[in-house]
Amino acid sequence: MSQLSLIQQLAVWVVPVLLAITVHEVSHGFVARYYGDTTAYMLGRLTLNPVKHIDPLGTILVPAIMLLLPGSFVFGWAKPVPVSFNNLRNPMRDMAVVAAAGPLSNLTMAFLWALLARLSMGLLKDGYLFFEPLLLMGIAGIYINIILMVLNLLPLPPLDGGRVLAGILPGPMAMQFSRIEPYGFMILIALLVTGLLGWILFPLISLVLFVVLPVSGFAPQGFWQIIQILIQ
């Protein structure tokens, strides 16, 4: 497989990235509505229209910069779907479930992209070479969704993992833990800049890939070879 131009790279990544962050946010909103909070629904955020969810920084600028950095992984975020804590029937418990819905949606999408990759590979072997872009999108979709899932499950507010942990901790401990939230993004950036974020994420990403990759039909070595093509 030959090296891709920047335009080709962007074409491969744009749909998986937009779907990964959009479905993630919509999942929060749907689960919140199920548990009694209609805030996201009333604001028109329960839609797969990416325009409603695009954050200029997290959806466009950050992923584009990550693509331009050789060997870097790609990630981004959308505008958070608003959830009114007090509208939930059981606020502490329900907020944990709402938070978990986003990463679970990414895991589901990783499996769906794996199925697309497997189908595309079969068609390529049959000589249908025009399915190569779908194969690359499938691999990109697996990668970005697993990264977003693992990243968001880190126990650091305001990430989903932090909200899940706050929801299951006893009340006083949850309140103390939630005080980290104003500094959560700065902590995340510090981990990224120092390289510690990759050191934390990579073993977890590899573990989830071990479960997802058999669905795609790819061995880890082949998967990582294609990822290198997609991010170089």
TrEMBL record:
A Pfam family found in this protein is Peptidase_M50
Might you name a Gene Ontology BP term for this protein? proteolysis
Give me the Gene Ontology terms describing cellular component.
Answer: plasma membrane
Query: What range(s) does the Peptidase M50 domain occupy?
Result: 142-193
Q: Which cofactor does it need?
A: Zn(2+)
Q: Which residues cross the membrane?
A: 57-75, 96-116, 128-154, 183-202, 208-231
Report the membrane topology from the UniProt record: Multi-pass membrane protein
Q: Give the keywords, sorted.
A: Cell membrane, Hydrolase, Membrane, Metal-binding, Metalloprotease, Protease, Transmembrane, Transmembrane helix, Zinc
Q: What is its main location?
A: membrane
Task: Recall the GO molecular function terms of this protein's record.
Answer: metal ion binding; metallopeptidase activity
Query: Where located?
Result: Cell membrane
Family membership: Belongs to the peptidase M50B family.
Cross-referenced PANTHER family:
ZINC METALLOPROTEASE MJ0611-RELATED, ZINC METALLOPROTEASE YWHC-RELATED
**Protein known as:** Site-2 protease family protein
